[in-house]
Amino acid sequence: MHIETPKKTIGKSGKAIYDFLLDVKNFESLMPENISKFEVLGEDRFVFALKGMPEIILKRKEQYPHHKIVFGAASDKLPFTLTANIDSVTENESQVVLSFEGEFNAMMAMMIKNPITNFMGTLSGNLEKI
């Protein structure tokens, strides 16, 4: 399953956005209002839960300075990645696309597609406010 947010233009340099996303504690400010748990577990991982959903531990898997950061599920039960692609437009403006990639059976994909799409939209929208 692949979900991608529309490209967002943000009034920050690619480096500033990259540095913001590299610090996992900053993800708390990007989370939806219905978050029931957020806890930093280390410099490269955090756990969060939305009301009515199970806890998810995200771990930074790959990083390409100022251009891309890939987070993945720390558990193999729900294998997926959340990727931030950052393109610098000018010195003080960048475009960001968030993408979700996961391998789920058809039933699971049907159940989680809308909540994940909404979650990704919220992350992307809140990223514009940093």
Please describe what this structure looks like.
24% of the residues lie in helices and 43% in strands. The protein is an alpha+beta fold. This is SRPBCC family protein. InterPro entries: START-like_dom_sf (IPR023393).
End-to-end separation in angstroms reads 28 Å
Helix content, binned percent: 10-25%
Tell me the series of helices and strands, N- to C-terminal.
Answer: EEHEEEEEEH
Characterize the main sheet.
8 strands, antiparallel
Shape: globular
Unreliable spans: none
SS-based class: alpha+beta
Strand content: 35-45%
Q: Tell me the name of the CATH class.
A: Alpha Beta
CATH fold node name: Alpha-D-Glucose-1,6-Bisphosphate, Chain A, domain 4
Q: So, the CATH homologous superfamily?
A: START domain
Count, helices: 2
How many β-strands, per DSSP?
8
- The radius of gyration over CA amounts to 14 Å
Total domains: 1
- The CATH architecture category equals 2-Layer Sandwich
Average pLDDT figure? 94
Organism: Cerina litoralis
Protein name: SRPBCC family protein
